[in-house]
């Protein structure tokens, strides 16, 4: 599940907008980030108090974990590229780290492939069930 899917489960649109505003994760990055005053005007609130309270909720913490998980993946990509470049230049520490990262990546890729296979199987099962329905 990505952060946008997780946010779609939040019932209060203001909370969704607050999370996107706070972490600057809007789809359209061409627009400048709103100031706090502009954000409050947009959501029709006078203070940030409801959002500060929201930050202490289990729902916010769950959203934060999903968001941070995606950030870790982005950071891992950046680190991989740096280590890979240094390893190609012959840096011994980077070579060892690269080989270690390679094993982790292969292990995680296998898990991801299995997860994606389960999703594909579920979709195929749903399609077969739909085709089996008697629509006459």
Automatic annotation (TrEMBL):
Q: What is the lineage of its organism?
A: Bacteria, Bacillati, Bacillota, Bacilli, Bacillales
Which UniProt key words apply to this protein? Coiled coil
- State the source organism's domain of life: Bacteria
Query: Which residues fall in a coiled-coil region?
Result: 109-136
Task: Please name the source species.
Answer: Bacillus norwichensis
Name of this chain's protein: Phage portal protein
């Amino acid at each position: 599940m990505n952060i946008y899917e997780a946010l779609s489960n939040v019932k209060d649109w203001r909370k969704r907008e607050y999370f996107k505003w706070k972490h600057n994760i809007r789809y359209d990055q061409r627009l400048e980030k709103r100031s706090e005053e502009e954000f409050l005007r947009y959501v029709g609130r006078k203070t940030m108090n409801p959002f500060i309270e929201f930050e202490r909720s289990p729902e916010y913490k769950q959203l934060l974990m999903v968001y941070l998980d995606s950030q870790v993946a982005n950071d891992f990509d950046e680190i991989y590229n740096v280590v890979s470049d240094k390893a190609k230049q012959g840096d011994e520490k980077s070579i060892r780290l690269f080989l270690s990262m390679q094993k982790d990546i292969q292990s995680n890729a296998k898990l991801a492939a299995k997860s994606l296979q389960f999703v594909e199987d579920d979709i195929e099962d749903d399609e077969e069930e739909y085709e089996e329905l008697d629509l006459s």
